[in-house]
Amino acid sequence: MSEEPPQPETEATCVCTQDKVLEFLNKMSAESGIADLTDPGLAEFLSESDALKVIRDKFHYPKAGSFPDVDASLVDPESDGIYLCGNSLGLMPKATERIMTEQLDKWSKLGVFGHLSGDIPWAHADELAVTEVGHLVGAKPEEIAVCNGLTINIHVLLSAFYKPTETRHKILLESKAFPSDHYAIESQIRLKGRNVEESMVCLEPRESEETLRTEDIIDYIEKHGDEIAVVFFSGIQYYTGQLFDIKNITEAGHRKGCLVGWDLAHAYCNVPLHLHWWDVDFACWCSYKYGCTGAGGIAGLFVHERFKNDKRDRMLGWWSHKMSSRFVMNNELDLDEGAAGYRISNPPIHLIVPLLGSLEVYRSVRLDDLRSRSCYLTGYLEYLVNTFFGVGSDKLATKITISIITPSDFHQRGCQLSLKFSVPIDLIYKELVKRGVAVDKRYPNVIRVAPVHLYNNYVDIRRFIQALIDSCLAVENNV
Ligand SMILES: *Cc1c(COP(=O)(O)O)cnc(C)c1O
Questions:
Q1: Which pLDDT score is estimated for 247?
Q2: What is the DSSP string of 259-285?
Q3: Any residues with CB less than 8 A from the CB of 479 and at least 6 apart, and which?
Q4: CA 143 from centre of chain
Q5: What's the average model confidence in pLDDT over 15-27?
Q6: 3-state class of 185 per DSSP?
Q7: Pocket-forming residues, ligand 1, beta carbon under 6 Å
Q8: N6-(pyridoxal phosphate)lysine occurs at which residues (predicted)?
């Protein structure tokens, strides 16, 4: 039996507030003698004074000039790019390059002998990661497997955990779930011989609201839970950036006898998680967003230890078989325990390497400390957006206004803020790109901005705001 993961110290994942952020900015303003909180000089001072600023050096941080369509008359190509898109694809840790070169070298010299030799025996490479990945999501090592892609893991888990009956056959999700999750759920319902119209329930926010209220989700489960087989939500909503109350929604599902699973694509490595203590049944995530493992990086899955030996039917392969007798090859399955028994194929070493590179970074800093840093970074971004673009502000920089659709409550968000513009964003986005900004657009009028706690700083945020002001002015003056 392995040790239990540490229990969460507080109910909430975050104790920060916008007042605390303002208090901090005012304190730093007094210390630096820079009175105006929006002064770019203050951003420099904040970045310099930041105890975690060194983590940025563990990454290859791109220069503005290396991005496509950058206009050298608007931004110095030698300056750092304004990369606020780590919610889509995280930057590359320097460690990854080193480990990858070592493993390619090993392959060239050892061929098949590499499976069982060296610091990273390929056949066991995934097992080297499960303890630390477990720390990042608050789980025991035997509750974790790293394998496949995220959507595949949704299929793997629903194949095992969605067992509809005549009376309990529904899957509850949100109406704006990520398309891949939506399709995976639709297909799982059909594969189990049921129809989507009857068995798929998509919860919508109240009219004229952008995000779902926790109380409405819980209320729905309380009223209709008897028909729900599985509640499956995202931990952080990819579009709005809303962080759901994983603990209480899981509890509500359990009170009604539902299984509760989570897609943690945007939550993994973004906010501290306590999957074991929150009693989550199963969960999965991709690792290339805040986990920084590169496009299509290896995904993860969590299965609570209460299912450790239940041998439920699932999708199987030779890697579901216990290591001790896997190579006897007599076709009599001896199912591995816990999450390991949900693996199918042998681990892809070229995808495990970037995970090990990422874990090397996450070993050097506590996720709780990153979370706290993240709150101040997003709080600063929120302050600047509201000051220069908020309806009713007396410092409006342009005629274009912005409302932030991400909840203002820090308990309900991570690194990302989703900005909704009063005009279509096409032209503004193009102007941003010319100025070396990498952010993510969702038509017609939302831009998602994610200062990542690992490698972004206050200067990136202040430079983004300047680029945004300049872009909006350029668009206004051309129309
Ligand atoms: C990023 C993301 C995905 C991507 O799925 P892949 O299988 O990795 O291509 C799926 N679901 C959600 C909620 C995401 O945020």
A1: 97
A2: EEEEE-TTTTTTS---TTTTT-SEEEE
A3: none
A4: 19
A5: 93
A6: helix
A7: 149-151, 178, 180-181, 234, 238, 263, 265-266, 286
A8: 289
Antiparallel, parallel or unpaired: β 259-263 and 282-285: parallel
Distance 265 CA to ligand 1 centre (A): 6
Q: Which of 156, 238, 292, 298 to mutate to test the pocket of ligand 1 (most atoms within 8 A of CB)?
A: 238
Give the whole-angstrom CA distance, residue 92 versus residue 405. 29
Mean pLDDT of 370-397: 97
**Kindly report the CA angle at 128 between 127 and 129, in degrees rounded to 5?**
90
- Supply 305's token pair: 């230890």
Q: Are 145 and 125 in contact (CB under 8 A)?
A: no
| Residue owning tokens 């709150």 | 375
The CATH architecture that domain 18-80+367-478 belongs to is Alpha-Beta Complex (3.90)
Which tokens belong to 82? 């304004």
Residue 114 near residue 122 (C-beta atoms within 8 A): yes
What is the rounded CA–CA span in Å between residue 461 and residue 383? 11
Domains in the chain: boundaries = 18-80+367-478, 97-362
Share of residues in the chain with pLDDT > 70 (%): 98
Interval 232-276: pLDDT, tens = 999 999 999 999 999 999 999 999 999 999 999 999 999 999 999
